[in-house]
Each structure stands twice: as C-alpha cells, then as structure tokens.
Amino acid sequence: MVFLSLVVATILVDVVLSDPLHIPIVKRTKVKTVESYANAAEKLRYKYGFKSNSSRKRGNTSPVAITDEQNDSSYSGVVGIGTPAQIFSVVLDTGSSDLWVGSTSCLTCSVNAPAFDPSQSSTLKLASGGSSQVHIIYGSGTVQGGLATDTVSLGGFSVAPQTFLVVDETSANLFTDGVSGIMGLGFESLAATKALPFWESLANNNQFSSPEMSFYLARLVDQAQTEEAPGGVLILGGTNSSLYQGQIDFVNMPDGVSPSYWWQQVNKVTVQGNTVGISTGTTSYAAIDTGTTLVGGPSTDVKSIWAEITGSQALSPTGQYAGMYSYPCSIDVQVTISFGSNSWPINTADMNLGELGNGQCLGGIFDLTAGSDAGTGQGNPGWVVGDTFLKNVYSVFRSNPPSVGFAQLADGLSASSGTSGSNPAQITQTSDPLPSVSGSSGSNASSAPPTVNAMSSLYLTLFATLVLALSLLR
Ligand SMILES: *[C@@H]1O[C@H](CO)[C@@H](O)[C@H](O)[C@H]1NC(C)=O
Ligand SMILES: *[C@@H]1O[C@H](CO)[C@@H](O)[C@H](O)[C@H]1NC(C)=O
Ligand SMILES: *[C@@H]1O[C@H](CO)[C@@H](O)[C@H](O)[C@H]1NC(C)=O
Ligand SMILES: *[C@@H]1O[C@H](CO)[C@@H](O)[C@H](O)[C@H]1NC(C)=O
C-alpha cells in the first residue's frame, strides 16, 4: 500500500501570470554540460514565467506551449519545480494522474534531459519511511522513487505544496531525449501517489475560469522536422476559440463510471467507409489519453478493423511489434471513431507509422491486450485513444460534469497532405531479428512474410496510460 505520510495541510494556489504566453518555439539544442543546463534553465525560467519581473495578477486561463517530441511520439510541456524553479519537459498525460521527474540520482533516466536536484530547492519536503516509496506502472514501462512536496508551476499556474514523485529508477527506454517525466492530467482516484493532481487542485480551488483543459496537438509526422518542434497548445482553465471551429461536442462519461481516466464510450468505428462490428458494454469504454502515441483497442475489434484492409497482417505476438499490424503502404487507411453522435476521421497520415519493408507499413491502431501489460477488464480501459486520434480534433477535458468534448480544428491547423507515407515516422535501422508474421487478415495470407529491411525503434511509441491493479468501475 502506498501511504502518504506527508502532511498536506493547506494547498496554496497562486496564479503567476506574466506576459501572455503565445506558442513559443521550443527547440532545444543538445546541451551536454552541467553548466549549459544551468544557463538554459535560467533562460527558460524567464521564458515560461517561473521567474518574472512583471507584476503579479490573477488569471484563470493559461496557455501551455506544447513540444512535439520525435514525430508525434509524445507531447510535452514545461513545468517548474522547487525554489528556485528547476524546469523540465514532461509528457502532458491525460491517461495517468501522477507527477514525477527523474532525479539527479537516477541512473536509468533519460540522459539528455535535465534531472531534479533535491538539494537545490529550498521548499522541497521529502517524505520519509517505507510508505514514501512509490512504484508506478504504465503501459510501456515503470518508474519508482520517493514522495516529496514542492512548489510546482505549469503555464501561469502554481500549486504549493504539490505532491510528486522524485524518481530514482525507470525501466529501460521509457522516454526519448529531452523529456524528464510525466505530468498526469487524469483524476485523483487513478494516482499511484494518492496525491491530488496539479490540475485538480486548481479546479477544486476555482482557479479555472471553466473546469476545462483543452488540447490542440500538432501533426508533424508528415512534415520534415527535427527531434523536437512546437507541437500545439494546452489551455488550462478553458479553451481558445481561435483553435477550433463549430461547436464542441461534449459527451458525458458513461453511466456508472466514476472519473479516473477520462472515460468515453466508443460507439462506432468505420474503416474505408464500412462500419466495423465492435464490442459493446464496458469493453467499449475508452481512456482518452494524450500521453499515448497510438490507438489501442480490444483484440477482436482491432482484428476486425484490419480485416477491412486487404493485405494487412498481424505482426508476431512474441516480437517487438506484439499486437501491431502491418498493411500495404499503397493503401490510404481511412478510419473514423464515434463518441456520442459524432464521427471523427483520423488522417491517413496518422495511421501510417512508417515502412517496415516489402511495401508493408506499420499501422496506428494496435491490439491493447497483446501489445501491453494492460489487459482489458479489472478497471483497465478496453480502448486507449491516444495521439493518433487526438491530433485530428480539438479536445476538451471537462471535470464538471465529467466529460470530454471534441471539436473540429480551426482551418490551417495540422494541415496535412492527407496522404499516407509522405514523411512517416523514422524507422531506425537496427540489427534486431526480423518480426515474423503470425497471421493475416488480408487476401495474401499464404504469401511469404514481408522482408523487413529497416526496423522501427518502438520505444518511440509511448504508452503512458496507468495500468491498474484494481477495479475502478463501480
Ligand atoms: C528584472 O529586474 C531586474 C532589476 O530591475 C533587472 O536587472 C533584470 O534584468 C530584470 N529581468 C528581466 C528578465 O527582465
Ligand atoms: C488563441 O490562439 C491564437 C492562435 O494561436 C492566439 O493568437 C491567441 O493569442 C490565443 N488567445 C489566447 C487568449 O491565448
Ligand atoms: C522524424 O521524421 C523526419 C522526416 O521523415 C526524419 O528525418 C527524422 O529522423 C524523424 N525523427 C525521428 C526521431 O524519428
Ligand atoms: C500476393 O503476393 C504476391 C507476391 O508477393 C503478389 O504478386 C500479389 O499481387 C499479391 N496479391 C494480393 C491480392 O495482394
């Protein structure tokens, strides 16, 4: 059991809003020395308003610049932790509810990302005792560390004290360069640390002009880019009407489900215009998850989806691509997913994760059960609807009433060629063994498996949904 031994008596919520934050370009150069980290950190403290000369004023919405990491693999924002603020890029993750950053004593954390130095914060309080150690299990890895409280800022908002995890160990390849941790934007009941999430403390204290967090996630997978690029914007406490058009279609969480993940029910899926038979009941419940790169679904449903694509193949359940499917790169895979009464199309570019070889490309929808430790049932979602879908909409996470809204993006945002494979995610050459093809849903089932001459390093695909051990469905 995780027991929070820290006394979190009063939560002081303070809004430090400096000059309006536009969508600044966040493009880090490779910084290698401790000194250059310090300089870069100082600049960023000013840039993001963690240190500011401007007079304090109250504000109740604040934009947070989002960085697109590694061709839409994950989307991060910059948090400040401690006094003076140490700054970190963290994945903005609606699929989990804990905040953590790697510490200077973490040997397994990302080497090219700043680490939190507990000795350099005058406001840090470390928890003590055995119960202060927490282990968090995500769909694509684990972290562990010690509980602490400190001042935490994101956008123009600060919470002090905020409980978070100072991580000293992570599983391999959880992250790519530049990212130091995760900011969970799910509900408190999902928190392994048992701490009230940053956003929820702001919402509970009426710091938001409306109880909403809204995302525009840029699509860069079909454009030439560097490792990190401006990747959209998160608005804390509201929406920005310049980023979407038409109405926001809010759909309440399914009946009988208490908020933990941002639950929605998948009502319908179409592929190439055809409606696919999918599971009903709790199996159709989805976590809407900005922290996961792809879309994962129930085995049978995902199989049915790919069955609509001639020449698609399930990749080996024992290999690196467990749960994933390949399909002929020449096909534009057109998928729509319905929540409530609206159907939202996924751009064909988002369905194509790159060529595996022999004209076969890796598909953006995978079998959640085969592809991760997150089995369905027992409170885990049947679907995890990640960035592959979310890049295509303006998404609004509203805590009261608990609901998620989608709207059409404003013209000119995420403009895409709409064709697959124009510039897919990079496939890194490795000497890994080739995946074998375990089955086929296409018409060429008996042909030889594709010869894979290039391999994707799939650690670039983040699956930051918290994996539950107990049922949260009531
Ligand atoms: C803040 O104010 C101090 C003193 O007025 C000044 O020296 C410093 O350059 C200012 N910093 C910024 C970022 O404006
Ligand atoms: C809303 O977004 C537009 C377009 O990015 C931007 O110019 C504007 O400053 C934003 N408004 C607010 C209040 O953040
Ligand atoms: C992202 O895509 C660009 C263009 O295809 C490619 O040059 C780059 O190496 C890719 N980066 C990663 C991390 O895959
Ligand atoms: C099946 O595979 C063969 C050889 O790889 C190819 O020539 C043929 O066009 C394929 N048929 C279909 C229907 O994809």
Automatic annotation (TrEMBL):
One GO process term, biological-process aspect: proteolysis
Keywords: Aspartyl protease, Hydrolase, Membrane, Protease, Signal, Transmembrane, Transmembrane helix
Record: active site: D93, D289
Spans traversing the lipid bilayer: 454-473
Keyword check for Membrane: yes
Region annotation (Disordered) ranges: 417-448
Name of the protein: Peptidase A1 domain-containing protein
InterPro entries recorded: Aspartic_peptidase_A1, Aspartic_peptidase_AS, Pepsin-like_dom, PEPTIDASE_A1, Peptidase_aspartic_dom_sf
Signal peptide: 1-18
Compositionally biased spans, kind Low complexity: 431-448
Pfam family membership, one: Asp
Gene3D superfamilies referenced in this protein's UniProt entry, alphabetically: Acid Proteases
Compositionally biased region (Polar residues): 417-430
GO terms of molecular function: aspartic-type endopeptidase activity
Domain Peptidase A1: residue ranges: 75-407
Top-level taxon in the UniProt lineage: Eukaryota
Organism for this UniProt entry: Serpula lacrymans var. lacrymans (strain S7.3) (Dry rot fungus)
Annotated family: Belongs to the peptidase A1 family.
